[in-house]
Structure formats: C-alpha cells, structure tokens
Amino acid sequence: MSDYKIETKCIQSGYQPKNGEPRVLPIYQSTTYKYDSSEFLGDLFDLKAAGHMYTRISNPTVEHVENKIADLEGGVGAMLTSSGQAANLMAILNITSAGQNFVSLSAIYGGTVNLFAVTLKKMGIEVRFATPDMTDEEVDALFDENTRLMFGETVANPALTVLDIEKYANIAHSHGVPLVVDNTFPTPILTRPFEFGADIVVHSTTKYMDGHATVVGGVVVDSGNFDWTKDGKYPELTTPDESYHGVVYTENFGKLAYITKARVQLMRDLGSSPSPIAMFLLNMNLETLHLRMKQHSENALKVAKFLEASDKVEWVNYPMLESSPDYELCKKYMPNGAPGVISFGPKGGREAAVKFMDSLKLASIVVHVADARTCVLHPASTTHRQLTDKQLVDAGIGPELVRMSIGIENADDIIADIKQALGE
Description:
Blueprint: H1 6-12, H2 38-45, H3 60-73, E1 77-81, H4 84-93, E2 101-105, H5 110-122, E3 126-130, H6 136-140, E4 147-153, H7 165-174, E5 179-182, H8 187-190, E6 200-204, E7 218-222, H9 235-238, H10 249-253, H11 257-270, H12 276-286, H13 289-309, E8 313-317, H14 327-333, E9 341-346, H15 349-359, E10 364-365, E11 375-377, H16 389-394, E12 402-405, H17 411-422
Helix pairs in contact: 1-3, 3-12, 15-17
C-alpha cells in the first residue's frame, strides 16, 4: 500500500482479503486460537514463529487495524490499546524505569499531565516539563544521563499550540533519546510527524480516528527509525529478556524492536488490550477519516473567523488564523488545514463562558472532543480541574477558556447556534 495516496489507504490498508474471503474485515471474537502441534505453540511463546497466542496480546481483527494505522502514519508497526492514556503509558514504560526521567512539553492534555506528574511519579519515574517560554538552552538543561525520551502533542489539547516537531526532534536526538509525539488532533491526514523527525507516535483513537463518540481506544506507532543500539542507552531492547528465554529485541526484530517489546512484554503483563468488536468499529470509521478531517477543518476555520470578528469575544485561538502566533508553524506542519478544535474566551470571563455553553442548542456540552457532532467544554472546571493554577497557566488554559470541537454539520448552522448563544 506504500504507493497509494493516504485517502486510498484509509479504505484499503490493513486488510486485503484473498480469494473467497470476506470483503469486509471480520470480527474475530475469540479469546484463544487452535494449533496443530504443541511444538508450534512453543515456538510462538519463544517468539520464533509469527501468529496469535492469546487475544490479550494480539488478535487478527486488531492486527489488521494496527497495520492500517501504521501505514497511515508511515511507521513499521503499531499496537492498539484500550485507551489513549494506555497508549501514552505503554510508550513511556517501554523504555523508562524507576529512577529515570523524561522531558515533556507542558502544553498537553490535563489527563496526560496527571499521568506524568502523579501516577508515573509513584512508579519512580520523573517528568520534567518544558514550558513554551523556555529557550533551547533551558530545555537542554532538563536532560541528563537518565533521560529516556521527549514528549509533546502535535496540537496541544486544549491550548492548541503547535509543536515545532523538527526543533524538538533535533533537541531530543542531540541527547540520544527519541521524540514521542501525540498526533491525536491532526491525525495522519493533516500531518505525519515521522516525516519531520519524530520517532514514536501515539493517538487517542477515541477522537478523530473513531470520530463518532462510540469507541475508546489508543495506539502506539513505531517509525522504526530510532537507533536503539547506539551508546548502549536502552538495555531493555539490546540485552536478553529473560522472560522470553533471552531474546534480544534489536537482534531478533530489527526495526520492529520497540513495538515488538511493547506488545509481547508490556501488553502481555499489563493487559490494556482493545476488544475485537471495538476495533472493527474503529476500522469502519477510519475509512471516512480523510473526508471527515477535511470537513472539520473547513468548518472550524469558518467558525474561527466568525468568532474573531465578534464583539462578544475577547480572544480566539485557532492555528489557521493569520492572527495566531502558531500560524507559520501550522502552515509548515499542516498545510492542508488544522484540526476542528477552537479555543476562545467570551467577554465576561468564567461566568460568560458558562452562560454561553448553557445557551447552546445545536452544540452539546460533553466530556469529549473530535466528534462528528459539534461539542463544547470548559477545561478549567472539568478535564483540567485537578491542575494547579500554575499548571493551568503552563498548559495555556485561562478560567474563561471555552474549548469548542467543530463538527461536520453545515457551518452556517453551527455559526447561527454560536451567535444566538453569545446573545448577538
């Protein structure tokens, strides 16, 4: 599928039926598999043969969807998980242990901040946040010999700051560590981080990839480009794994070392596996991803321009607006459009924000984003309410900030709903 355009890959990649097989990806709703010999099963457990041992680790339906997403991102392999947070956790734990640390940009989703700063801290893993105002030298100072990776979101949720992927890839690589990028908001339709130097990509597939608020999921995608053998920095990949009779991932699996270890070790032990039927639904929705992202982008730009011109609005943040400080970065990394999420502040602060949301008729107040339906949320009092005032500032979130996820309805209807809710 490597020669096809990404629109074709959305539909055709991952599952190619053979003669007489079902045209639509089947749901392999089975926890287990039958084998013709105990010797073959033993080879599976020794990682000497390819196949499925148990659905907690892998499943044919899930595997086909993983292959599709890997192809969309331009990676060598992918591993689907039960949620986006599980994907973030797996991506980090795969190469990070107690006593080590990693660097993260501060402008990321509030739930991810809690995962990094609270839960991983309890595991003995330290996160060091790089704030947007830091110089390159200040960011460099966050790294030391125990730093394992750098993390950022392509488009931050909900601050909507655009990650300078090339810049941070160069910084990470200068310290001998990979750059892990959460590409949830743009999806590979709008940008492919591997093309700009990122090494690992994660997604909450719950968002645009599903796009219909039906299936929770996540994915880790491996570029296959990072050299894990350099300087002996990653012994978990370059020395024998005794839980698999001494297999060395870089020797046995080459470019697939990272994603193979994530599956056969972490997924085996942590069990954050998605259900086959959920991934069947995800696959169906991926087939229209390219169409939906185009409509989300077009609608969001129209709405953002309306809000920018409204005298009821204090400020608007959307990276495709020429007034956005990230406009040039957006054009560089997302030349065909930005995701459908806008943040803005109605005049009157928090009280005005709440009144606006309660007055909407078409748009729904939900704890979700990136849906086909337009929806709205107040992050400071919901998804990010556990953050301190300083963390809120570092994440680019003010008390008046409204996060609006623009759906694929008619843009005029969305604007009319916003207009009446603002009291215009």
